[in-house]
From TrEMBL:
Subcellular location: Cytoplasm
Chain coiled-coil ranges: none
Residues binding ATP: A12, P13, S14, G15, A16, G17, K18, S19
Family: Belongs to the guanylate kinase family.
Residue ranges occupied by any Guanylate kinase-like domain in the UniProt entry: 5-183
Major site of localization recorded for this protein: cytoplasm
Highest taxon listed in the record's lineage: Bacteria
Job description of the protein: Essential for recycling GMP and indirectly, cGMP.
UniProt EC number: 2.7.4.8
Pfam families with a match to the protein in the record: Guanylate_kin (PF00625)
Organism: Roseateles toxinivorans
The protein's name: Guanylate kinase
Length: 206
């Protein structure tokens, strides 16, 4: 499948900082839009339906799966998460750039459907720092944090399948790296597809 917009996928173990980084990136980049996923997870404290996620029942989620409404979906930390076609298709067809914040299973499904998608994996600087970020965030019970730490080992092992790996030690440095990846992809895309004919015509080149 091919659309005129760029597609970026950011994955990371829970607590590595991907939501914080993507949020900061979106504030700096008006051309980038984030996809809102569906999930069967219960909302955390400040989360709102339609802002962080579309919170759904498992029955509704599975019915959407049966109807082919997702580009990708996966079970993560015991809940279901998915990117609906509706969340990204119209935007990409319109030429907007879209970023997905999803787990590695979803990222690899997206790469199959959209080979030109750019996959970025965010790593924490250490396991201890990852645990401390989950604890400091204060949103998850100890048992949930332990489950996420254990799943993180499996997730990090998938990083080599991604196009880029960014270590989120210092937030500003990681944000700079993400911006550079987005910028480089736009230049590559412009050279390969979107603007080539216009530029060549302007320069009177064949
Ligand atoms: N570079 C950093 N240094 C210190 N703390 C950070 C850094 N980046 C993010 N954090 C903090 O770590 C916590 C986890 O970040 P965030 O919620 O963005 O992680 P996440 O990868 O999106 O997790 P999840 O997948 O569970 O949503 C937050 O409290 C955030 O403020
Ligand atoms: N495969 C998908 N994974 C998703 C999607 N939306 C979020 N996620 C990932 O789930 C975990 C947990 O998120 P949390 O908000 O409960 O902490 C995290 O790795 C997300 O990236 C999705 O649509 N598809």
């Amino acid at each position: 499948m091919e659309y005129p917009g760029n597609l970026f996928v950011v994955a990371a173990p829970s607590g590595a900082g991907k939501s914080s980084l993507v949020k900061a990136l979106l504030e700096l980049d008006a051309k980038l839009q984030v996809s809102i996923s569906h999930t069967t997870r219960k909302p955390r404290g400040q989360e709102q339906h339609g802002r962080e996620y579309w919170f759904t029942s498992e029955e509704e989620f599975r019915s959407m799966v049966d109807q082919g409404k997702f580009f990708e979906w996966a079970e993560v930390h015991g809940n279901l998460y998915g990117t609906s076609r509706e969340a990204i298709e119209a935007r990409m067809a319109h030429g907007d750039d879209v970023v997905l914040e999803i787990d590695f299973q979803g990222a690899l499904q997206i790469k199959q459907l959209f080979p030109y998608a750019v996959l970025v994996f965010i790593l924490p600087p250490s396991w201890e720092e990852l645990r401390q970020r989950l604890q400091r965030r204060g949103e998850d019970k100890d048992q949930v944090i332990e489950q996420r730490m254990s799943n993180a080992r499996v997730e990090v092992a998938q990083a080599q399948q991604f196009d880029f790996v960014v270590v989120n030690a210092t937030f500003e440095t990681a944000l700079f790296d993400l911006k550079a990846i987005v910028h480089a992809q736009r230049l590559k895309y412009a050279a390969q597809r979107r603007n080539r004919s216009a530029v060549f015509q302007a320069l009177n080149l064949p």
